[in-house]
Recover the amino acids of this structure.
């Protein structure tokens, strides 16, 4: 993709609905990550000895004039029989990324030891996931959002059987999506939108669970796309 834009900048437009933007293409021609490669043993092996690979998305079109803020998110893979990714839906009143599907996480603090510490602390504060249940595998490349956040995705394996206590101010819902679904590029849809002469592009990965369609797009989809590139390399 030549460029992309964060969900915040587009969502601020009057009556903008990303679901209504036409799909320009679906990457069904790319290889699916094999199911065996998504199991915990294989994921540990991949991060212990990573392949040569290139991230596809590193930065969105910046639309705010302020100094960048460093943050970390946890890409939490729940070790079920078929692994899943734990995601959140942000509440509508938040000033950034309101109503969007996101990884748990947030801003770095001065006393955080590193990016992993930030991701684990913020995840516990946001959804109540005990850090003791998370085995950190490693980091994905930093991702710069249009809202001037420099995000470090931290990939971790999560022991099932956890109890969550979401922060009701920040989190409207917590749900799981099969990792196999997200690592199938046949579910990676490309969108293009032009506004004030600027061409903006992004991925979406809509997932239909039993009750709701989870419209994953923007930065979250971008980081998942980079994870796909690592696992398929």
């Amino acid at each position: 993709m030549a460029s992309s834009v964060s969900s915040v900048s587009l969502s601020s437009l009057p009556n903008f609905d990303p679901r209504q933007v036409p799909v320009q293409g679906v990457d069904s021609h790319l290889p699916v990550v094999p199911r065996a490669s998504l199991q915990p043993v294989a994921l540990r092996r991949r991060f212990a000895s990573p392949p040569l690979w290139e991230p596809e998305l590193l930065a969105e079109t910046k639309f705010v004039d302020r100094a960048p803020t460093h943050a970390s998110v946890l890409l939490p893979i729940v070790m079920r029989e078929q692994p899943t990714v734990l995601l959140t839906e942000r509440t509508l009143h938040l000033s950034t990324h309101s109503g969007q599907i996101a990884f748990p996480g947030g801003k770095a603090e001065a006393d955080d030891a590193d990016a992993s510490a930030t991701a684990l602390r913020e995840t516990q504060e946001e959804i109540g996931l005990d850090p003791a249940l998370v085995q950190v595998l490693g980091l994905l490349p930093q991702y710069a959002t249009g809202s001037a956040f420099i995000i470090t995705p931290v990939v971790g394996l999560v022991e099932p059987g956890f109890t969550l206590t979401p922060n009701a101010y920040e989190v409207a819902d917590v749900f799981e999506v099969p990792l196999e679904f997200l690592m199938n590029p046949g579910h990676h849809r490309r969108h293009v939108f032009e506004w004030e002469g600027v061409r903006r592009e992004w991925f979406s990965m809509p997932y239909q669970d039993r009750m709701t369609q989870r419209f994953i797009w923007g930065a979250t989809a971008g980081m998942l796309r980079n994870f796909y590139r690592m696992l398929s390399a």
The CA atoms of residues 208 and 214 lie 6 Å apart. The two ends are 18 Å apart (CA to CA). Residues 1-9, 93-98 have pLDDT under 50 and may be disordered.
